[in-house]
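User: Fold this; tokens only.

Assistant: Input:
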Amino acid sequence: MNKIFKNRLELKNKFRSQQNMFGGWISFSHPSITEIFANMKVDFIAIDMEHSTITIEQSQRIIAASQSYSVPCLPRPVSHSNDYFKPILDSGADGLIITTVESRDQVESIIQNMKFPDIGNRTYGVNRAHNYGFDTLNYYQDWNNSSSIILQIETKKGLDSLESMLKFEHVDGIMVGPYDLSGSLGIPGEFENKIYIEACSEIIGLCDKYKKSCGTQIAKVDEQSISKNYDLGFNFIVLGSDLFVLWDWADNTNKLISKFK
């Protein structure tokens, strides 16, 4: 088993055993940013292709940069379309984070597009994921049992349908989208609001019931925020993003500059 396959399986096993994990968001396309993030020794790096201009071609370079540091990579495509799933997976992604999942039918379609027969109907091809032909058969044999599927709950409709979605064996975890979920609940950005906290607790409880990992993201990374989310019951946290890091630095530096002008 080559290193990429091994790391991919280890990540899936971490999700399956609900281990405490950390990830990092990439919103900008230059692979040097990914290499810097990979030095944090996070468990995975996620590519935000939903709220960025990262292209499929650029995502392949990010995936390669992440895997070169033995960090698995989970892109988040802009939609559920197989027009995005197929080339991103063939580029070597270790799984996907799927935005705004709201129904059992959507989960069925996601699994069909992501897994090879006889689980799904992903088509066979040769590209970077298959080491350009040198590991093709191994990739086909290992993919279904080693790739990760993480569904995002970002709406009240998704919350209401969650239990039916968790019944799928091939779902490895759930990730709360805090901004979208709070907005859908009528309290955008109010993460201390009782309504939002109760929704998260419901999601965490259902994930525990079905032995699925449950995670979220935090924009401003500090010990208090991490502890609060782990104490609530999340077992994986995506720590900020390259965009948030730069924004925070620019904001703090601007305040410093203002003292001297």
